[in-house]
Write a structure and sequence with these properties.
3 domains; three-stranded antiparallel β-sheet; 6 helices
Length: 269
């Protein structure tokens, strides 16, 4: 007697159900990927636009802590961009989230710096233009500047740090307008502040706090010297390098001479 073969009989409705379940799983996976792509793309556009705005404030008036946070932020954005290029959208999203948190922290540091700077400018300008206090425009600009500084303090206390930075810029703008109202030119010492108000980066030298040691935090002209955010530029300070009696570096450029030789490790016995 031949053994019988037993099998599972599938009617058309069961096969259709299996196919439908497979299609649903594929659709769900595709939908999740599309959702991750959409959310990650939106975050990328938001972060990459905001980092350009932050860079102006950080480069113009940031101290060493602010610049470190800014650099870390740009590194996070680069890592997230790599994930986007690899279609790993779900992994990119938390990186953008981390950047936004770090950006908030960076603005916190900037807010205190900007408030301090606005107060310094206010005290200087009102002292310099005190003889024009009866000029209605000058007096009005002083009052508006003072109000913006007070509002900046309130914004910072409410953790609206970016708003505080903008209010300080407004305050300084009113103060510089007071010079024009008095028929005077704005002093050159405020050139960095004016560039910052115009959302431009000042490439010149900046000492964050003149009461500290000047060599602790110093930024030189980006066009001439390598700094933290332009690490590909050659360092300043070495005029000449001599190897085996031949000059290989002079006046900021290689001479073309290659007198050195490779010291290979001796082969082991």
């Amino acid at each position: 007697m031949k053994p019988s073969r037993k099998g599972i009989k599938c009617d058309g409705s069961f096969a259709a159900a299996i196919l439908l379940a497979s299609l649903c799983a594929i659709a769900h996976s595709t939908g999740a990927l599309a959702s991750d792509l959409s959310e990650a793309t939106e975050l990328r556009e938001k972060c990459e636009a905001q980092v350009k705005v932050l860079e102006v404030a950080a480069r113009n008036f940031g101290d060493d802590a602010v610049l470190r946070d800014f650099q870390r932020g740009t590194e996070l954005l680069r890592s997230a961009k790599v994930k986007m290029a690899q279609s790993k959208y779900a992994e990119a999203k938390p990186l953008y989230g981390d950047y936004l948190k770090l950006q908030h922290q960076t603005y916190k540091g900037l807010a205190s710096i900007y408030i301090k700077r606005a107060e310094e400018v206010f005290n200087e300008v009102t002292t310099e233009l005190v003889d024009f206090i009866d000029n209605k425009k000058v007096d009005q600009y002083f009052k508006l500047a003072n109000q913006n500084i007070q509002d900046a303090r309130l914004a910072s206390g409410g953790e609206r740090y970016k708003e505080a930075v903008e209010l300080c810029r407004n305050a300084k703008n009113y103060l510089f307008e007071s010079y024009k109202a008095a028929g005077k030119a704005v002093p050159e010492k405020y050139a960095r502040d004016i560039k910052d108000i115009n959302r431009e980066i000042d490439p010149g030298e900046f000492n964050y706090d003149e009461n500290r040691d000047r060599d602790k935090i110093r930024f030189e002209n980006d066009a001439e010297y390598g700094i933290f955010l332009s690490y590909a530029q050659p360092a300043h300070g070495i005029d000449t390098v001599i190897v085996n009696g031949a000059v290989v570096w002079r006046d900021g450029a290689p001479s073309g001479a290659r007198p050195g030789r490779v010291l290979a490790r001796a082969a082991r016995a």
